[in-house]
Amino acid sequence: MSNTEKRTPGVIKDPFLLVTGSFEPGHAEEFCNSEPDPEKRKLANAELNYFRGNTASASAAFRELSESKSESILLAAGLGTAVASLSGENVFEIIKLYNSIKTLYRMIPQNDPLKDTANPLIIYFNILLHNFSEISFPPTGTDAFNVDDSLKPMAFYAYSHYLTETGDIGRAVGMAEGALVFMKKPCPISEIYISLIISRDYMLRKNWDKAEYYFRNAWSIASPDGLIMPFAEHRGMLSGMLEKCLRYEERAVYKRILDLSNRYHSSWVTVHNELTGEKISDALTAIEFNVASLASKGNSNNEIADLLGITVNSVRAHLRNIFNKLGIDSRKELDKYVL
């Protein structure tokens, strides 16, 4: 631990200020600039740039913090650079950076509070990459995360997302909805992510009304500050809901989310495949990926058409192209190529 950083025994201030920050929607910039410490203020604004989709500016700002003498700032800067770089930089540099982050994390003593604080953030990054072999939760879930209250909502999101991806939808919904109900104060970033994973869960259950309700809840929190990146990150998981809620109501924003998502997806696929040995396809167009993702979850052609706002004949044509590109014969084979 740096001699310049003082810690209260058993307590650690969270590395990501905006992610764990409490402020009213529409006041994110004001919140970031209210931080008196220049280094932390720079970190918070780098986070804000990322969530607004200004990924190049965010990545540059995170990199500038890589010489910090604070371990918590160093960890946040490394994770922030890796996540922001997924939208366009050299993917093998991201993998190198990811391995450096893991090395730094392992070097933190087991009884250091920073270890506990970093844990859900490391888990979040691995969930983002669908790199599940690197994830292990305490037996009692988030109850065992020894973190400050401000980080617990993001820990709940990480665990709920993990449960969703491992097929335990009931527990995922219960945990995520409970986190929103019992949140002690507004924490917009966590609320956005939690609402999006609940929307995903209800989509998997084909409860479209509730899926739309939680998607719109996320958007109502995000839109006053222009926080569009969570929607770009989750686009593959929310194929159809993004189109239903934003395609016609927020045309310019929808187009920007698609652009961010396309850049993000291209790098994400390469990093994911390299780290996991899987072969998620990078051969599909955006609309093909959406159709394939929905088809892989058991949705009928009519349901896919309704969600994406296209005709049933268009769905059939896209599926023919998808099967040809992937060299497969049925929907049952789609799972290994999409999310």
Describe this structure in words.
With 339 residues, the protein is mainly alpha-helical. The protein has one domain (17-280): Alpha Horseshoe (Serine Threonine Protein Phosphatase 5, Tetratricopeptide repeat). The protein has helices at 17-20, 28-33, 38-51, 55-64, 71-85, 91-107, 113-128, 152-165, 169-181, 188-204, 208-222, 229-233, 241-246, 251-276, 286-296, 301-308, 312-326. The N and C termini lie far apart (40 Å). Residues 1-12 have low confidence and may be disordered.
Give a short synopsis of this structure:
This protein is 63% helix and 0% strand.
Q: Secondary-structure map with pairings?
A:
Layout: H1 17-20, H2 28-33, H3 38-51, H4 55-64, H5 71-85, H6 91-107, H7 113-128, H8 152-165, H9 169-181, H10 188-204, H11 208-222, H12 229-233, H13 241-246, H14 251-276, H15 286-296, H16 301-308, H17 312-326
Considering the chains and any ligands shown, give keywords for the structure.
disordered N terminus; mainly alpha; 339 residues; 0% strand; Serine Threonine Protein Phosphatase 5, Tetratricopeptide repeat; 17 helices; 63% helix
